[in-house]
Amino acid sequence: MKEGTAQKISNALLSGAAGIASFFFSLMAFLYITEFDEQLVASITAGAFCLLVSYIASERPNSESARALAALGDRLMAVEDGDLVSPPPAIVRQNMPKLATAVDTLFAEVRASIENAQALGMYDPVTSLPNRLHFRSEADKLLGSAAPAARSAMLFVDLDRFKGVNDSLGHARGDQLLIMVANRLRVVVTAELSESANRRPLLARLAGDEFTLFFPEIASTEDIERIARRIAVAISEPFELYGHSVDIGASIGVALCPDHGNSVESLMRAADIAMYRAKSLGGGQHCLFNDELAADYQRRIDTEKALTEAVQRGEFMLAYQPQLSLQTGELVGTEALLRWNHPREGLRSPRDFIPIAESTGLIAEIGEWVISEVASALGSWNRDGLGRRLAFNVSPRQLDRADFFARLRQAFVEQGVPLSMVELEFTETAAMKASEAVVAEIAALRKDGARISIDDFGTGYSNLARLRSLPIDRVKLDPSLIADIEGSEKARVVVQAVIHLIQGVGCEVVAEAVETSAQADILRAMGCHTIQGYVFAEPMFEGEYLAWTRDSAGATNRSVA
């Protein structure tokens, strides 16, 4: 019989006994007591007795339930101390068996949920490898327990060309590829364990297509570099992915403890820096962190910090380099070149800071300053009667801004500068990859009088069919193409072919960085229209440039032409 039913029967028997006792008590009182006062006292006594018995019958189960609930409350309060294992008290099981069972089930579900949450918080759901948090925690423990003279190594692995897989096959296929990569890394780790008696290395997926390995014990630098090469070879093998043969690679950075750091954070930073150097060298290889990389990294950090304040401090300047017609010897244009007057280091070459500005996105703000300065200079020249056309570079980061073209137009309108005095230069790769909306905006600028140029042609990505359809007027040869035309027949053949190609799509050819008269003569014979370079004029600041154009441009132009 269930305990709840027994309790009900017990209460019913007690109530029945109280009723029978009250009946006999009242009967005896009325049979043997004749006086009114005595009858009244007997009636009150009988009623009080009945009330007492009824209260006991009703309070008995209530008190048991109250004690059971109090005990259950104490058990639930123990959860604050982390107790999710102890069962409900026995009194709860005796008086409220269903509630006790429900509490058991609830605690079991909570424990399972916590375990799942801990697993999700410590492991990557795609590859089932430890995640960044778990990796750092375990690596810290291994570093802390290492012998004083022990050497360890951190490897940072970044996949090459993985983004192309996601873009072409979708993120679901990309996740499958990550699982395959993780399995190959596991094979390398397992092979290393079988070949050595060292402690097991850690393998984790940090984020995206980034993996990391920590080897708590290594025999030598050569040994860990051998492992890095093995990883690069393993990842370079084609992957079969749902009928597609996928070729990717891996750029691997290697950092050693204690050589490059004694903490997980410092080792990961060093390995990350080395990985980026490996990627800049073409990928598919490893790079060991060294003092040169550390110095380059610190310079980059310092440059980024200084660039963020350079615009506000007015440290940028524009230099102007004339462009000369090889056919007539006339000044046909000028390019505005960015210069940074660093407060401690003086004038810095664009090669030192433009790539950093591009990668950090600061180039967009710098580009806004350039447009403002070009508009201001052209406005001043225009008011002075100097109808100079001025070219300036546009960064791909600027094209990402939805309001770029509207702001550009507004800058020249405010200075009263017609677009016929403006020339915009786009890099070859940016022009080829521009969206149809961007191309339409460029075409509209060209229709309104602006000239459009492709800069550094010959080093980026070229689509000849797209080149023919782009709204462009001039194509500027990259300096690397013409550097050897004086002494190399192959270089001359290449340049001649490129010039014919550009002329074939109806564009003017401009050669920049021309340094000798011999180069100018060869380019003229090849049909190049315009040159720009030290052969006749170096970049000058505004005052010097205006004086040069007034006083000596004619004689210089005639001598070069």
Automatic annotation (TrEMBL):
InterPro entries: Biofilm_reg_signaling, EAL_dom, EAL_sf, GGDEF_dom, Nucleotide_cyclase, Rev_trsase/Diguanyl_cyclase. It comes from Sphingomonas telluris. The lineage of its organism: Bacteria, Pseudomonadati, Pseudomonadota, Alphaproteobacteria, Sphingomonadales. SUPFAM superfamilies: EAL domain-like, Nucleotide cyclase. Keywords: Membrane, Transmembrane, Transmembrane helix. CDD domains: EAL (cd01948), GGDEF (cd01949). This is EAL domain-containing protein. PANTHER family: BIOFILM ARCHITECTURE MAINTENANCE PROTEIN MBAA (PTHR44757:SF2), DIGUANYLATE CYCLASE DGCP (PTHR44757). It comes from the Bacteria.
